[in-house]
Amino acid sequence: MSKKEFVYKHLRTSILDGTFGSGQRIVIDQVAKEMGMSIIPVREAIRQLESDGLITYKPYSGAVVTSIDEKEYIDTLMVLSVLEGYATALSSEHLTSIDISRLIQLNRDMEKAVEEFEFELFGDLNRTFHASIIQKCGNPVLIEKIEETQDRMDRVRKSIFSMVPKRAQQSIQEHAELIQCLKEKAPSEQIEAIIRNHRKNTVEAFLNRKDKNEQQIL
Fold first, then answer.
1. Residue 43 predicted with pLDDT over 70
2. What are the structural domains of the chain?
3. Integer Cα distance of 69 and 32 in angstroms
4. How many Cα atoms within 13 Å fall on the side-chain side of residue 143?
5. What is the C-alpha separation between 65 and 24, in angstroms, rounded?
6. Which residues contact 204 (CB under 8 A, 6 or more apart)?
7. What pLDDT was estimated at residue 153?
8. What is the DSSP string of 95-115?
């Protein structure tokens, strides 16, 4: 791993796990000093993070962590709940016992990630869990739209579980309910409703987190 890649990974993890909050300034000289290297690899890493959308350059401030557009996140997640609910219902007719076993293992891996406070890993596993299902829906246009929507909200998806850790555990329980319905070949309407509620519960957890923070400030 090059110095630039090392710094990139360090800064990216710090942004996604909430160590560097939205709008926080990233001081290049300070990062270089803390990591014991020159400013060149730090600048290169920050440029890559800027292309990822995680860092924004602002006049008189320099590099700052890109602020989360909460309304856009919620709107996008609600759209995803509709698209993914439909795709999951379609996929339920094509999932094999091997597919179900993989979902069970992924859910176990997610539980272990929560226990070890690996919330970025949890986010990756969560996306893999749902992608493993929708890939079986048989509609490539629908899959493409879902993937585009997921990419749009990728940054918040990975960091929200560190902001609302209880939601991660609830998500695992909801996955278990979904897996059981898939195993039992439940009606497509029931499966679609589970996914929609699953996404809506994430929105509610996100909003409740904001309310609790405001109460603490008051």
1. yes
2. 3-65 (1.10.10.10), 70-217 (1.20.120.530)
3. 29
4. 13
5. 5
6. none
7. 75
8. --HHHHHHHHHHHHHHHHHHH
How many whole angstroms separate alpha carbon 162 and alpha carbon 18? 7
Q: Report d(CA 178, CA 192) in Å as an integer.
A: 10
**pTM given for the model:** 0.70
Alpha-carbon span 14 to 159, nearest angstrom: 10
Q: How far apart are CA 92 and CA 87, in angstroms?
A: 9
Buried b (16+ CB within 10 A) or exposed e, 16-37: bbeebeeeeebeeeebbeebee
Residue 157 confidence (pLDDT) above 60: no
CA 158 to chain CA centroid, Å, is 3
What are the tens digits of pLDDT across the range 54-90?
A: 888 888 788 998 876 778 888 888 999 999 999 999 9
Question: pLDDT band at 146, cuts 50/70/90?
Answer: very high
Instruction: Name which of 50, 185, 202 is nearest 127 in CA terms.
Output: 202
Q: What are 200's two structure tokens?
A: 């809506």
Decide if pLDDT at 39 tops 50.
yes
